[in-house]
Amino acid sequence: MTRIPHDTSGEPNPLEAFSLDQLRRRTSMKWRTYPDDVLPVWVAEMDVELPGPVVRAVTDALRSGDTGYPAGTAYAEALASFAGKRWGWTGLAVERTAIVPDVMLGVVEMLRLVTGPGDPVVVNPPVYPPFYDFVRHADRRIVEAPLGADGRLGLDVLERAFREAAAGGGRAAYLLCSPHNPTGTVHTAEELTAVAALAERYGVRVVADEIHAPLVLGDTRFVPYLSVPGGERGLSLMSASKAWNLAGLKAALAVAGPGAGDDLARMPEVVGHGPSHVGILAHTAALRDATGWLDALLDALDANRRLLAGLLAEHLPAVRYRPGDGTYLAWLDCRDLGLGDDPAEVFLEHGRVALTDGPSFGTGGAGHARLNLAASPEVLTEAVRRMAAAVSAAGGARG
After folding, report:
1. Average pLDDT rounded to a whole number, residues 109-119
2. For a surface tag, which of 43, 67, 266, 352 has the fewest beta carbons within 10 Å of its beta carbon?
3. Whole-prediction pTM value?
4. DSSP E strand boundaries for the chain
5. Rounded CA separation 360/262 (Å)
6. Is 13 left (phi over 0), alpha (psi -120 to 50) or beta?
7. 321 has which bridge partners?
8. What is the DSSP letter of 216?
9. Are 96 and 259 in contact (CB under 8 A)?
């Protein structure tokens, strides 16, 4: 399953379309949470110009009044075609999909299908903070299986967590983040095959959050969990929202492996009322007609991760950064800076730059911060400059 070669088709860098002044006119969370003097490189929104096919799909719908309720399988068909061309995966069966409002609400619905109240859900911290919030809100309990120091899955650690989860006699699940947020780790076919074997051994059902699947950089390949041997009973959540910056146009797909179709069929029909019809049109257009734009974005993100590594080496050499192969997020180990458990707080207070705080990602998050790479080189450069200034200012304040 090799990703197709890049074909930018002459697409410009979508991260360089807007000036900082233009971006500050946006009204989304990224640009309205903090005062105007704060540079936001935190929440997972990208500073991009949307691809033409997506804009046309939405504006055509608005002009024609096509703003009712969703119908049909066009989104699933577009995703299946994209998966076949992009990842060489032909096993995404449209009849084993269902639309859901977004990935995390879909995760909750999948967990409800395969576990009951009070049952355990294994996660790999440091991990996307809403994993904790949504799992607990669904009345399930968290069992942690922390990533290794290299940011990868530790199979021994995972097996211990599966054994613990299965020991209580309930129904256990594993919420897999693939590619992983915040580390950017892209799990290999060998790792995922081993996960599937462990899940079958201990009777743990795997629910994979694969929202960042299109955002894999360089020569690394994304491997869908449902494509590996033993993954047939898995459930996956996918969406075009992260890769094409469509979070405000709500839509996602739940995908079942061949052994989980009956589970997905039990999902209440009303769940499919939640996605936006206009969102589905936008996501479908992105997957079907905006892959050249995506490749231009991937090239820009690849350049940005190299830029960030160089900037940190020059201005903040004590920060440890291992560029991830997936997502547009950078996980920064700031423990050697001496800024305490929450360096993002120091960067905000003394440097007026907003990152996401590390402790919210669970075990292994203290002393870390997450930075959003999906910005122009100028914004990234200014962000690191401010971070370095914050460290100097904090040192002066302590002195």
Report:
1. 97
2. 266
3. 0.95
4. 39-40, 97-100, 120-123, 141-144, 173-177, 205-209, 235-238, 252-256, 320-321, 329-333, 353-354, 356-357, 368-372
5. 35
6. beta
7. 332
8. B
9. no
